[in-house]
Design brief:
The chain is an alpha/beta fold. It has 2 domains: 5-71, Hypothetical PUA domain-like, domain 1 (Ribosomal Protein L25, Chain P), CATH 2.40.240; 79-237, Alpha/beta knot. Helices cover 29% and strands 24% of the residues. The chain has 7 helices and 12 strands. The chain has helices at 23-32, 88-100, 121-134, 149-155, 178-181, 198-205, 222-237; strands at 5-8, 19-20, 40-44, 50-58, 61-71, 79-83, 105-110, 142-143, 147-148, 162-165, 186-190, 210-213. The strands form 2 sheets. Strands 6, 7, 8, 9, 10, 11 and 12 form a 7-stranded parallel β-sheet that branches. A 5-stranded mixed β-sheet has the order 1-3-4-5-2. The radius of gyration is 20 Å and the shape is elongated. 31% of the residues are buried.
C-alpha cells in the first residue's frame, strides 16, 4: 500500500494552479503526518480526477500544487441507501460502510419506530470524507436531510426500483431480482430496530416499484442489515467485477 497521503479537497484541480488548504487539513499534513515542503500528496475532489500534488509549507498553512493527474474522474453505481437513523455510533458505522461500499446517495428516513430523530448531516459528511480518502474512492456520496418515510416516497422516482428489506416470509432473495436491477439506478431501504410498522409495511407493499427482499432466516441488527444488503447488491449488479486501484508506493 502507498504511504503517500491522500486527501479530499473542494478546490479545482488543474496543473500548476496551487491552492491553500483549510486550517484543519494543513494541521493534519504538517503536524500529524509530519510532511515537509516538497512532499507528494494525492488529492481528489469528486470532479477532476485524482492528482499528484507537491506540498508547499508556508508557516502553518499547507499549499498544494497539482502536477499530474493519476486517475480520471469516474463514478460508481447509482445506488441510494435509505435508512432509519439509530444510535450515534451505529449510524456512524452505517455511513462509513455505505461510503466504502460505493453508495452514491445517503438518505436518512424517519419511520414510526425510528430511535433517533436527530440527524447530523455535517457529521455524516466528515465521515464520508474520511472513508473515501482511505478506500481510494473518487467521490463522496451525496447526503440528504432526514425526512419522513411518506415524504420520501412522495418524492421517489417511480421508474427507479426501491429494494425494501422485509422480514415477511414471501420476500425474494436478492439474486431473484437481478434482471430487474441490472444497469439501472436503484434504492435500498433499511428499517429501524424493530422493523417497519404494520402500516408502513402495508404502504410499501402496495407500491409497484418497491421490491421486497429477504436477508435470510435471522433478524439482523440495522447496521448488519445495511452491510449485508449492500454486499448482496454489489455482488449481484454492482461494480465488484472491477479490480481495485493499487497506487504506486
Amino acid at each position: 500500500m502507498s504511504h503517500i497521503a491522500r486527501i479530499y479537497v473542494t478546490d479545482a484541480l488543474n496543473k500548476n494552479e496551487d491552492f491553500a488548504l483549510p486550517d484543519a487539513q494543513s494541521k493534519y499534513l504538517i503536524r500529524v503526518m509530519r510532511l515537509v515542503d516538497g512532499a507528494i500528496v494525492r488529492a481528489f475532489n469528486g470532479r477532476d480526477g485524482e492528482w499528484q500534488c507537491v506540498l508547499r509549507v508556508n508557516g502553518k498553512i499547507a499549499v498544494l500544487e497539482p502536477q499530474d493527474q493519476t486517475r480520471p474522474q469516474s463514478a460508481g453505481p447509482d445506488l441510494t441507501l435509505l435508512f432509519a437513523p439509530i444510535k450515534k455510533a451505529r449510524t456512524d458505522f452505517i455511513v462509513e460502510k455505505a461510503t466504502e461500499l460505493g453508495v452514491r446517495h445517503i438518505r436518512p428516513v424517519l419511520t414510526e419506530y425510528t430511535q433517533s430523530q436527530r440527524v447530523r448531516t455535517d457529521r455524516m459528511r466528515l465521515l464520508t470524507i474520511e472513508a473515501a480518502e482511505q478506500t481510494e474512492r473518487m467521490d463522496l456520496p451525496e447526503i440528504y436531510e432526514a425526512e419522513t418515510l411518506p415524504k420520501m416516497l412522495a418524492k421517489w422516482d417511480q421508474n427507479t426500483p426501491l429494494i425494501y428489506c422485509d422480514e415477511g416470509a414471501d420476500a425474494a432473495p436478492m439474486r431473484e431480482l437481478q434482471s430487474q436491477l441490472s444497469d439501472r439506478p436503484a434504492g435500498l431501504l433499511i428499517g429501524p430496530e424493530g422493523g417497519f410498522s404494520p402500516r408502513e409495511r402495508e404502504i410499501l407493499r402496495s407500491l409497484d416499484y418497491v421490491l421486497p427482499i429477504t436477508l435470510g432466516p435471522r433478524i439482523l441488527r440495522a447496521e448488519t442489515a445495511v452491510v449485508s444488503a449492500l454486499t448482496l447488491w454489489q455482488s449481484q449488479v454492482g461494480d465488484w467485477q472491477k479490480a481495485p486501484y493499487l497506487p504506486q508506493t
